[in-house]
Specification:
By secondary structure, this protein is of the alpha+beta class. It has two helices and three strands. 1% of the residues are buried.
């Protein structure tokens, strides 16, 4: 099993290696599914959608949600 420390270390590494994750503007996004926490990061003409599944079950997200994102 992956430790929580290692998980956060990986996430911090991703953020530090990506300009949009470290410098982009952040705004919450409502996907209409209560157990999904979503937000977008915007930097210049780039948009990135970040989705966190807060439940213990797999959740499918329509591919149309992803349109327009990097």
């Amino acid at each position: 099993a992956i430790s929580l420390f290692k998980h956060y270390k990986t996430l911090i590494g991703l953020r530090n290696s990506s300009e949009i994750l470290s410098d982009g503007e952040i705004s919450p996004t409502d996907l209409g599914i209560q157990s999904l926490l979503a937000f977008e990061r915007v930097l210049g003409n780039k948009k990135l959608l970040i989705i966190h599944n807060l439940s213990t079950q797999a959740i499918e997200v329509s591919s149309s949600v992803m349109e327009g994102y990097t």
